[in-house]
Each structure stands twice: as structure tokens, then as C-alpha cells.
Design brief:
The chain has two helices and 15 strands. A hairpin with a 2-residue loop joins β5 and β6.
Length: 208
Amino acid sequence: MKAKRLIILTLVFSMIFAATVYADSLHGIYDGYPIAKVLVNGSEIQINQGDVPGLVIDGTTVLPLRKVAESLQAIVKWDSSTLTANIYKPNVHLFVSEDTKITGNDNKDYLIKAPFGRIAQGKTTNVFVNAQVDTLIAKTSGFKIRILTPSGDEYDSKEISKDFENSFWFTCSFKVKFSQAGTYLVDFSFKGDDGNYVTVSQKTIVSE
């Protein structure tokens, strides 16, 4: 009986040890800590080689702040003198329309036919991107609006270099031929202190 208990206990401890080793090595080890895989809305955050990934430290998941914030379409400003990270989430409301009739920032008049999110594949039309921005606490020196194809390529873009803060409204137009089937992205990004752009809002147009 004692031998049987000893065998059972040995098997239990072996299973626990194997499970622990499996959990520790499931996504790899970094600096002695298990790596945690992080997904935002079902999409895994990609960590560049050499960068610190998400880690499990003393039972707590520690995440790379900038990567997570950018995945949540927020802006991170780092103050190295005070070791302080500030996260800003501006409210950027986008809608796209055809034949817009309003006075845009280029002083041209446009007519809003109807906001839309689906379009026939192969159609060529003027796409008007309307952006309403508020809760812009962090001052920015500019922004960019891009049209991305289903394959991820940039179809067209407009870059605005100007100091913005608080709230503003912006309208611009693109002539787009929806030659590919799939999801086109309207991407709105602010210019960061390092000159790189951070996406803060996206709208989809399905071509079918």
C-alpha cells in the first residue's frame, strides 16, 4: 500500500512539474521569466526582435506599455527626466461619404451624399473623410490620413503639418478605385515627438 501511495505521489509531482515547465516554456523565456502572449481584440501584439515582450513576474503579467497603448490606439509620451509615462486617448470620430457638400479645409464645397461602409468592387468614387477630434490633451504637430488596401498597401495619403490642440474638425477627399475585394482601411494617425505617426482611429470600407 505504501509503495502504491509512493508511486501515485511521484506521478502527481511529476505531472505538476511537467505542467510548470510547460507553462514556463509555452511562449519562451526572457531573462528568466516566462513570456506572456498578448492579444488585443483577437490580434496578437507583435514584439520586435530584441524588444522586451510581455512577462509573467511573481504571478503578475507585465506588458510593454507603448505596444499595448498603440494597439489600443492611444498615444504614449515618455519623460525620461522623471521616469513618467503619460498615456493620451484622443476622441477621433471618423466617417466616410460620397459626394460631400460642405466647405472643407481646402475652401472647396462638397456635398454629403451618404456615409457608407460598403461599396461595389471595381467602382471608382470620391471618398470624403470627415474627422471630428476632441479631448486632445497632448499637443501634436500634425496628423496623417491614409487609405490602405486589403493587402495592406498605402493607396493614398494626406499629411497635415500644423499645431493642433483641444478640438477641431477636418475634411479631405480621395479618389479611390476599389479594385480589390476585401476591407479597405481609413487610418488617422497623429505625429509623435519622435516624428513617427501613431494610429488613433480607423474606419473600414468593405469592397465586394
